[in-house]
Amino acid sequence: MAATRPGTPSENDLTRWDCEHSWHPFSQMREYLQFPPIHIASGEGSWLTDTGGNRYLDATASIWTNVHGHNDPDLNAAITDQLGKVAHSTLLGLSHPVGTELSHKLAGISPGDLNRAFFSDTGANAVEIALKMSLQYWQLRGYRDKDRVIGLRDAYHGDTVATMAAGDSRLFHRRFRPWFFNTIKLPRPECEEWDGKIRRADDGWSLHVLRKLLEKQAGKVTAVILEPSVMGAAGMLLHPPGFLKGVAELCREHSVHLILDEVFVAFGRTGPMLVCADEGVTPDFLCLAKGLSAGYLPLAATLVREPVYETFLGPFESFRAFFHGHTFTGNPLGAAVSLANIRKLEPMIATGEIRRKSDLFGRRIAEHFEAHPHVAAIRQRGMCAAIDLVEDRENGTPFPVPERFGIQVALGARKHGLLLRPIHDTLLLVPPLSISETEIDLLVGRTAEALNEALAARHVSVQ
Fold first, then answer.
1. How far lies 359's CA from each of 7, 231, 265, 269, 383, in Å?
2. What's this model's pTM, rounded to 2 decimal places?
3. Which of 245, 340, 237 minimizes the C-alpha distance to 293?
């Protein structure tokens, strides 16, 4: 165990205080308190170490944020350098060099005329800002009937009120439905892909439904919002190639904004720096977070097309300004580490390093799980994958909900030095992009071991 400083709480103290005072996100606390807690003390590369000295492979990239591993010297240096100058200075009526530089860099990597960056601190806020900007834009243009948003079924865009309304995460958000604004839910496209191969894809039904909706209701719709390529919190649900471009063309044809939530998929997670740029689509609003700061600090950005920005200009007394902001908007430390992250990521993408790792990742997942009798489906694109677990593959019978089988697998994985976070009975593998090929083998192999041990514990055949 690492040496502790004088007065450092003991592990017993931390456990007791955690039980007495903490309320963890997305957790049934009665269930949480039944399991031995893990207090993460340090990190190095793809690994995290707890206060007991146990090492774990960070199989979730600390909830999908980590890009270059923990304790990266280049990112540490960027923060340390900025810390020697100023830790925070507001963007309300002021600017600072590193924030301005990041705005310029984001405009440079974004497609088309996405020239303006509005900073915030989380993905949900980036999306909320885009929704508010879209509504105000149409009001300023005199189209006050445009107040509806079209989103995809099963989508998740965050937990603020507007993002809950725009999404369709029924289990998470149904209790707050009375506060939601008017939204229309579009059937999501379907696609199964792993090891770089499409196994099954949508036949165009989603685009057909969207076309019919816009033909009838475009005059009342402010925006279509979607997560391109991969719907993360929905269970890594994939979009087939061409879907995004089809949605963009329909939005342009019917004068409806397109909001892309790339909070999860951007910055190399699915391969390219930005999905929209890779697919030749320029949305009206592009929402970024998570990998933007490489998992170091809370920072988000909403990129906006120039004509949208110009609509908000006018004398103060016209009150056209966008009255929205966050205390730590464009925090200099977050901006500095984000710049260092992007500069370090660019050659990884350009040389094909991430693509090669993704191909290996897909092959290893197929080898261990494609024929597994308790795996109903696999989805993998880039460095993210989902493995749907079922009690009976042939009949698609799920495990009983009270059994919490996915959690049992994750708890067993800890004994193999893995930190997993499933969604229900879907195992999600989302490692740091810097993970080595040896660590990919370890990650997938140990996940299979944990699954088979959990099945054996309930006397289920794994043959």
1. 48, 20, 17, 13, 9
2. 0.95
3. 340
